[in-house]
Amino acid sequence: MSAPTEVGPPPAPAPGKPRRPAVGVLRWTLARHLLLVVVGLVVMFIVTAALPEFRDFQVMEIGYFVCAVAGLTVLTGMNGQLSLGHGALMLIGAYVVALLQVHAPSTPMYVQLVAAVLVTAAFGAVLGAGAARLRGPYLAGATLALAVGLPSIPTHYVSSLGGETGLNTSSIVTVPGWLGASFTQDHYLAWIGSVAAIATLLMLGNLRRSGVGRHFRAIRDDEVAARLSGLNVARTQVLAFVVSAGCAGLAGGLTVLATNSASPGGFDLTLSVGLLTAVILGGLGSLAGAVVGSVAIVALPSLSETLVRLTSLSASRGASVELGIYGLVLIAVMLVAPGGLAGVVRRLRATVARP
Amino acid sequence: MLAVHELTTNYGAVCALDGVSIEVPVGQITAVLGANGAGKTSLLRTISGLVRARSGRVLLDGDDVTHVRPEDLARRGVAHVPEGRGVVAELTVEENLRLGGLFRKDRTDAARALREMYELFPPLAERRSRSAHTLSGGERQMLAIGRALVARPRVLLLDEPSLGLAPKITAQIMSLLRDLVAGQQLAVLLVEQNARSALSIADQGVVLGLGKVITTRAAADLASDVALRHAYLGF
Amino acid sequence: MSKFIDITLTGFSAGMVYSAVALALVLIWRATRVVNFAQGGMAMITTYIAVTVIDRGYGYWWAFAAALLSGLVLGAVLERVIVRRVESAPPLNAVVVTLGLLVLLTAVGGLIWGNSSRPSVPTPFSLAGYTFGKTTVGFGRFDTFLVLAVLAVMVLLVALFRFTGLGLAMRASAYSQEVARLVGVRVGRMLTLGWALAAIAGSLAGILVAPRVPLSPNFMDGPNIIGFTAAVVGSLDSPPGAVVGGVGIGLALSYVSGYLGADFALPATLGILIVVLMIRPEGLFSRAQARVV
């Protein structure tokens, strides 16, 4: 009889390792994370300089996907709550930025993004409060309903929210002068996306190592035990939703910067499915996995385009190819390697460690 | 007859059974005794196939059935009444009994066996359409044994039938078992924590300790060996 | 007043379809403790198969049989090949796998039959309402067929589960796999059979919805969500609850559509789902206390 396949982030360090004093841990973790940030920025410089210009948009895409996927993987992987509605949360962030641009165009970009984060996080608090009692399939079903239902709301408000065609905005992103005259806007957007991603990863990484992160894991592993040890389970779960919703809101806001529009069609169920696929592929709870998964999701349309060309399918069927790949990835990963790529890496490391 | 040779089972790194060998003759009750964790339940679960044996053999009338799946072994005449009764609480008494005879090809005999169980266990007859979770502990034990017997098994594996039962009920169940074996071609392997009542009806006793067989002797011998009783059997 | 009767009858008819979807979900839940998010996708595929049968020139009844039969096969195959592997895993794995199946089936439908919507399935029963003198009600011959078909399937399923040995074996497998195995039940086969039977109910829903809507790979998404809501409202453990939940929601949505406007139907469904999940997540018909799923 085989044991159930466990899904989750890396186990705690082996017992017997000497415990560092709390402050020491913090300093060490922060230092390590800041180092990663510097590395990330360097990578950003190099990659955006090396890649041809038409890739700038994709780098931006990867950037905002990382924000959303990382937030979702923390919620699902660390806290054990599966949400299928994060596409809808991105929609909220997007509409906040779009509305600000339409009605208050002089607001600086950063303020608009912060607003998107806050509004979506507030919505996440409501969602989390409601979802606190739900488990497993029930939570999945409720968030699935959200993913399907929320995008339909703007379609009823044509004058204020732009109806089905959505809102169009004029670009508010101006490249700062000190970057030089030849620095294109697309390039700048790629940087913005990357910086946002790095900042999000830094925040989530610190969160994970902190006491709050331990609370998340405790609840995921054994809710009853966590409750008995005094953890306020409901509050922690709401917090998890708030954090991940904020990340999704940021991602949604960034999409408006990239595309100058916000419409229901851009945040449909396929998006939520795509986010989930990225999380599963990368590995639940793994931030590195979130990055890998995001790259995969952004690369997917080109992959499916190639497939469509190779098999000479019509354009409408091409959309099905993309969807089909999502489905196959979800099923295959769950059956073969439920821990995603992060899980595979973990297992490889363990086999190498044991001679 | 049921025979077990050098049976070894592990749960991960823990060795539950270590080279256990037992013979369970027809028409006799063989009691398996020992402290908690000695491996008694693991023995039954390995025999019936719920747990996979690491090594060793289980032989049913000479046929090697070591790795036969539980459902197939049940169809070959081995009935296992697991720890905690194994009664399906959501089904009625009648449905639980019918379960025992579901796979039997001889439907007439299956129906006859069902009627016999009602004669054997009058309380079950009174509650035949009641849901099983409304039964008392003793009645559930009767139901579990009844379900096992409806299949007209060759071998009966019983795991701690006296668990949670009052002494009077335990005595009833035990004497019932004694009568059953006397009347049918049945081999009974009885795992019991309550060694005293088990030995009162058993023909032979096997004492397990930490997964190994400590000793195998006639029940009367075991009952009179005071030192052994104190060391392993708790009385 | 006649509008009320109209709306009630229409709601009842729609409700029966939702009951079929809900019943499929409940049966699979009880048998394998999995919520089959792929249900809508399965029904879509079997309905498209039925449409293909009609396109090839065969009559409606052949197509009807094809839908149910392919449902049976599809349910059995999916359980045996894919879902079996996550039945004993943490619930999250099963949720992701059935979602993946939903997405995959939708994609396959689009690949084989195209993503553009095509006209509905023709049926031998008139979709027009019955006329009594000068008034026409919103309930016609097709609706009668629909109600009778769903009732027939339900009655057959109930009879199977309650009165046959096979049904007893299936119920035992659902309640206690270990005990079932110990009495000789081949539990794996029972699980597969459970999925197969549930898929029949789901396919029935698909072919009954089809005549009234344009077909596309997503045409069962709405009924799927409504059916899921009905199953949750009634309680995932209770087949009668599924039926009551389905009819109840069908009526509720009909009233909302009729008196407030069709646009409000989907939000109303979501509202009901959310309210029920907040107040009584285990469903109205649940006998046990709220399970931690």
Key features of this structure:
heterotrimer, B: 235 residues, 6-stranded mixed beta sheet, 4-stranded antiparallel beta sheet, 10 strands, C: 293 residues, mainly alpha, two-stranded antiparallel ribbon, 2 strands, disordered C terminus
Structural features, described:
- The complex is a heterotrimer of chains A (about 350), B (about 240) and C (about 290).
- Chain A is mostly helical and about 350 residues long.
- Helices cover about 70% and strands about 0% of the residues of chain A.
- Helix content of chain B is about 40%, strand content about 25%.
- Chain B has 10 helices and 10 strands.
- Chain B is globular.
- Chain B starts with a strand and ends with a helix.
- The mean pLDDT of chain B is about 90.
- Chain C is mostly helical.
- In chain C, about 70% of the residues lie in helices and about 5% in strands.
- In chain C, helix 2 packs parallel to helix 4 (about 90-115) and helix 6 (about 165-175) crosses helix 8.
- The relative contact order of chain C is 0.20.
- At the A-C interface, helix 5, helix 11 and helix 13 of A face helix 4, helix 9 and helix 11 of C.
Name the strands of the widest sheet of chain C in spatial order.
1-2
Computed over alpha carbons, the radius of gyration of chain C is: 19 Å
What is the averaged pLDDT score of chain B?
A: 88
Fraction in beta strands of chain B: 25-35%
Radius of gyration of chain B: 17 Å
User: Number of DSSP strands of chain B?
Assistant: 10
Helix content of chain B: 40-55%
What ranges of chain B have pLDDT less than 50 throughout 5 or more consecutive residues? Answer: none
Shape of chain C: globular
Major β-sheet annotation of chain B: 6 strands, mixed
Fraction in beta strands of chain C: under 5%
Report how far the terminal alpha carbons of chain C are from each other.
44 Å
How much helicity do the residues of chain C have? over 70%
Which oligomerization state do the chains in this entry correspond to? heterotrimer
The sequence of SSEs of chain B as H and E is: EEEHEEHEHHHHEHEHEEHH
Number of strands of chain C: 2
Quickly give the structural class of chain B.
alpha/beta
